[in-house]
Design brief:
A hairpin with a 2-residue loop joins strand 8 and strand 9. 35% of the residues are buried. The protein is globular. The longest helix has 11 residues. The chain is α+β, with helices and mostly antiparallel strands.
Length: 136
Amino acid sequence: MESEEFEIQFAIPESWETEVDGDTVTSYGNGVVFVLTAVKDNSISTEELFEIQIENLDMDTEGEVEEIELAGGIIGMLGGGAGIIEGEVAVVMLLAATLDDNNYLAYVFAKPKKFDKFEDTIIDVITSLEPLGFEG
């Protein structure tokens, strides 16, 4: 998938269904949901964006939050834990990332058993963000 407006591309499994609503992409399959929102506001730091989303998801983080570098120089904060999504407890992996004037907020969630079963796919999806046209 790619977005020219937000200068980003990312990979999701071909079998997943995808919906685009303005600046938000939602993809889902196998009981796993991926949400990516792009924000054209460079006044918010990656750390602030991460913290805002933790609050929005009523999330308790587990383990360390890591600063990571994705393809093409995208810098992100990656962490996981439990959150409340649509009134139910879910395991969540959250990424806040920045590239130039764009901020990206991505999270993947699933019920605990589904998360465990598809964890490798979840990690691949959430770390697949790269600049539009990047060929690494």
